[in-house]
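Action item from last week, closing it out:
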Amino acid sequence: MVAIEVPLDPSKVSGEVERITKALNQMEGVSITSNYMEDKVTVKGTVMDMADAQKIIRKIEQVPGVKSVITTIKLSPLKLKSRIYFEPGSAKLEPTYTQTIAEIKKFLSQYPQKHLRIIGHTDRTGNPDINRKLAMQRANIVRDALVKQGVDARRLEVAGQTNSPQDVEYNQPLLLSRCVTFDLFE
């Protein structure tokens, strides 16, 4: 007697890979796609933690009919890239930022264990004492807008800085410094 390997139905294998991919996408910070073809699965996407990439590979390798897994998963740490800009000497939140506030609220509801540091900035001109107060006013006005939208105030922390955000160069326009930036923490 000779044992032979009976090939599995490719559509069933593909369906199972698809089902597992959907389940893996339910993990926090995981956003992947997969493609099954001729015993191989190619996985693309991003994860917040590289340990998740290893879990993904192991889960897909366990599917009967999958002989190898090729992955181009990238690490994508969770960041909130939004910024809210202000006029010189002002802490007035312009109505154009209503959508930005809504997006931040949505983001925070997707990641309930995360907290948000709201950092007010000023440009380098003017009185440093006035700028410190202005930076805090900017951070507080954004915090208040988020709380008004239903974000739990205990998840928000405010800070003020009289300097530009780290990624704004000295020779760039001053308006880029008059903003609020966001930093996530646990």
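Closing note: The longest helix spans residues 128-148.
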